Amino acid sequence: MGAEASKNSASSGTASYASTIVDFPNLCRKESVATAWTLLHQCTLDKWKEGHADAGGFPESLLTCEGVIHKDCSFSFCMSRQGIININKGSSIFSFRKRSKFAKMAEHFEYNHIPAQMSSINHFRVKSVLCFHDSLVVLHLSRNTNSQFGLLDLRVNKFLGVFGKQHLEFANEALAGELSPDKSKCIVRMPSVTQQGMAAAAAPVPSTTSVFHLYDLRTKLLVTEIDLNFPLCHFCFDPRFTWRRIAVTNFESGHNNSLSVVELDAWNVLSTNPRVSDTRQTLYPFLKDLCYTRDGSLLIATILDVNCFCREKKTRNYRPINCSIYVFNGDSTETLHCIQYRRYTCTQHNCPVNYKPVFSVCGSRMAVVMDTTDDAVQHYVQVYKLPTTVNLQNMCRVAILQNYPLSRLTDLPLPTRLINYLHFKPDFD
C-alpha cells in the first residue's frame, strides 16, 4: 500500500496548476500518460469555484460548508450544496416547537415538501434527511413518539408515502440509510430494539447491537433484515448492481476493523478485508465516510482524527486534523492506496462536505480539500488520477464523458443500453 503526504506543490513527475487560467487540454495530455494516483492538478479553493472545477469535469464546486451537523446539515445531506435557503427559524408556524437539533433542515422540508394534512392533522414531524439519491429523498419522520420514514421526490415536489414504522422514536444520530442505484430499495441501519434495551436503542450512539432493514420502496414493505455484530457500521450500494450488493464495515463477527462485500439476497459475504486501517486498532469513531467510485471499481474510506478544536478556532492553538483516504478494490476489498493530508475542520460539528472527496463526471479523477499546517484560511484542492478498469468499453466511456456534457448524451447515435452505461446506471440485476 502506498502512502503520500499532500503538499502545496506537486511532487516530481506530476502536473500542478495555480494560475488563473486552467490549461485543460494540457491537463488531459498529462493525464493520458500519467500513472494512477498522480497529482494532476492543484489550486486554491477560490480558483476551484471560479472555474477550475468545471474545467476539470467536476459537478461539485462547493467543497466547504459552514453548516452545523445535526442542525443545518446531516451526514448524508448538505443544505448549502443543495442550494437550499433556510426559512426563518422564528416563523410563527414553528414557534410552538422547541427543537435543538435539525431545526433548519426540518423546518425547510416541513414547510416546503410535507403535505399540510400530514403535519397539521396527522402530526408528522420531520427530524432529518436519512439519505438521498438524485432527486429521491428519504426523510426521518416522527409521529406520536414513533420513528418512520417518508419518501419524497424533489424533482416533481411530490410526497410518495411512508414506510418502516418503528415502535419508538430514534435519535437522528442512531440511524443511517442508503438508496439503491435503481432507487427501488432502501437499506436502513438502526439499533436493535428489545424490551430490555429500548432506552439504549434510542440513545444517540446506540450501546446495543444494530440491525439492517431492507425496504422495497414500491410496496413500502420490509424485504429482509439481519442482526449486526457491532453498534456502528458504514455501508454503500455497489453502483454496478441494481440493489443486490453492498459494501459494509464490521459485518463479520470478531472483526471490528474490517470491510466486506455482501450479497443482499442471502447476506452472503463475497470478500473481506480484516484490516481497513493499518494505524488504528478499531474503525470507530474514526471512520466518517464510505463510498464507491462512479464505476464501482474502487471503494473509498475516509478516516479522520476526532479531535475538536472549535473553541480554539480564533486562537493560535487552532490545529488541523489528520485525514487519510484509504482506497480498496471494489470486488476483493484489497487495500490499494492511501492518501494522507491535513484539514482544518471538525468531524464532530462541521458538515461532512468539508472532508468528503468528490469525483469527476467521467469517474477517472478524485478531488480533496487540504490545508497547510500554518494557514487555516487558504484552502487548496488537489485532483488525483484514479486507476480505471482496463477495457475498451470503460475507456470509451471516460473519453466521451470528458468531451460531451451529460445533457447532450441522449443526442448521441447510440442505443439506450449504451446511453445508460454512460450515465453509470447499473449493469447487473
Radius of gyration: 22 Å
State the end-to-end CA separation.
33 Å
Number of helices: 7
**Largest sheet composition:** 5 strands, mixed
Subunit organisation of the chains: single chain
Helix coverage percent of residues? 10-25%
User: Overall 3D geometry?
Assistant: globular
Q: How many extended strands?
A: 21
Structural class: alpha+beta
Strand content is 25-35%
Estimate the mean pLDDT confidence.
Answer: 83
- In terms of per-residue confidence, which ranges show pLDDT below 50 for 5 or more consecutive residues? 1-22, 86-102
| SSE order | EHEHHHEEEEEEHEEEEEEEEEEEEEHH
Strand order of the largest sheet: 1-18-17-16-15
Report on this model:
With about 425 residues, the chain is of the alpha+beta class. The protein is built from 7 helices and 21 strands. The protein has helices at about 25-35, 45-55, 105-110, 115-120, 200, 390-405, 415-420, and strands spanning about 1-5, 40-45, 125-135, 135-145, 145-155, 160-165, 175-180, 185-190, 210-215, 220-225, 235, 245-250, 260-265, 270-275, 285-290, 300-305, 320-330, 335-345, 360, 365-370, 375-385. The strands form 5 sheets. A 5-stranded mixed β-sheet has the order 1-18-17-16-15, with no helix packed on it. A 4-stranded antiparallel β-sheet has the order 2-21-20-19. A 4-stranded antiparallel β-sheet has the order 3-4-5-6. The radius of gyration is 22 Å and the shape is globular. The protein starts with a strand and ends in a 7-residue tail after the last helix. The model is unreliable at about 1-20 and about 85-100 (pLDDT under 50).
